[in-house]
Amino acid sequence: MRPRNRAFEQLDDYPFVRLEEEKRRIRARGMRVLDFSIGDPRERTPRWIRERLVRGIPERASYPTAAGLPELRRAVVRWIERRHRVRLDPDRHVLPSNGSKEAIYLLHQALIEPSRERRVVLIPDPAYPVYEVGARFAGGIPERIPLDAERGFVPDLDRIPPETLQRTALLWLNYPHNPTGGVAGLELYRRALELARLHRFWVASDEAYSEIWFDRPPPSALQAGTEGVLAIGSLSKRSAMTGYRTGFLAGDGELIGLLRKVRPSQGVATPVFVQEAAIAAWGDEEHVVEQREIVRRKRAILLPILRSKGLELAGSRATYYLWIRAPGDGGGGAFAQRLLEEGIAVAPGALFGPGGERYVRMALVPEVEECEEAAAILERIL
To answer: Is the pLDDT of residue 11 over 70?
Structure first.
């Protein structure tokens, strides 16, 4: 038998691929599906961002540099300083990425040495599935940290055994949290950095949803320090630019230097015209305020219906997501299937790990009119 990578052989279908198959089955019956399953906003990317992209398309497009345009790195640094009051060096502390997924895979490749004992990757449960897949492909050992509704889906880091921390290479944090919509304060990041410095592991903070908030702007891990920390930012949700695949890594200068060295052979640099659009997007906040207001309107349509039907919402304080405890004894999978049969697609919580089995995630990405249609269906069937 020829050698093959066991991580590939053991990999299940990406959870949302299976969900797409179910949606196709329902549509084949002639039923319209209102799709709340994937966090892909349907709002138009602002015109002036699209125009900046078009102006940036040259007659001849050469390979982009792995380090990204200096103007983009400076735009990211200016945004971080405005938003989080943290000063960074654009040449030392920032690296553009193709959205957050490339950054996640690249980080695992850089930080996990499969032959060493220190290769545990601590991952929240529930969580974005790519953390675990990225860890396994790099030869890491994923270990789940349970997130409880009683704690607002914020981990109790002090419950992690010291012997586990001694074997840890990387700790993942993600706030505002996908899938629960939980939020965390600066004290979580400060404690994470204390433990990381004591036990000599890295902290990665996925902050892709940092701008979709409703009460107060959430902090960044960078506010607790940059040594040993990498924060991931993205324009996908902030600026309705999921298809542009543009984000950044920011933080520890030594690690950013290593990633800049590795990326030409491991990563795929973002096209220059996309970087031009990103420069424009990071420089403006008005369109982000409008984006938050749209999500707020959608919440105002659906939250009253869900609550009036006695459904329990946990977390759900930020992001596009409503984290709904499934009624009855069937769990999140059965409830998601029931809704899909009525034309409303949501994500079963189990797609995000064992900690999500009793829940479904509802992504407020359809347009306002579709949210109103979904509210009418829920009123009728629940």
So the answer is: no
Note whether 362 and 36 are within 8 A (CB).
Answer: yes
Rg of the chain over Cα atoms, rounded to whole angstroms, equals: 21
Q: If pLDDT is split at 50, 70 and 90, which confidence band does 15 have?
A: low
Helix, coil or strand: residue 348: strand
DSSP string across 190-215: HHHHHHHHHHT-EEEEE-TTTT-BSS
CATH 3.30.420.40, applies to 60-284:
no
**Tell me: the pLDDT tens digits for 224-235?**
999 999 999 999
CATH 3.40.640.10 domain span(s) along the chain: 60-284
Structure tokens that stand for 134 in this block: 């990225």
C-alpha dihedral, 111 to 113 to 117 to 122, nearest 10°: 40
CATH 3.90.1150.10 location in the chain: 6-44+287-381
CB neighbours of residue 357 within 10 Å:
16
**Inter-residue contact 213 to 183 (CB < 8 Å):** yes
The second-level CATH assignment, the architecture, of 6-44+287-381 is Alpha-Beta Complex (3.90)
pLDDT digits (tens, 9 = 90+) for 181-219: 999 999 999 999 999 999 999 999 999 999 999 999 999
- Specify the higher pLDDT residue, 340 or 12: 340
3-state secondary structure of 373: helix
Burial 314-332 (b: 16+ CB within 10 A, else e): bbbbbbbbbbbbbeeeebb
pLDDT tens-place string over residues 40-69: 999 999 999 999 999 999 998 888 988 999
Give DSSP secondary structure letters for 264-331.
HHHS-PPPHHHHHHHHHHHT--HHHHHHHHHHHHHHHHHHHHHHHTTPEEES-SBSSEEEEEPSSSSH
Neighbours of 305 (CB within 10 A): 17
Q: What is the DSSP string of 213-269?
A: BSSSPPP-GGGG-STTEEEEEESTTTTT-GGG--EEEEE-HHHHHHHHHHHHHHS-P
Mean pLDDT, the chain, rounded, equals 94
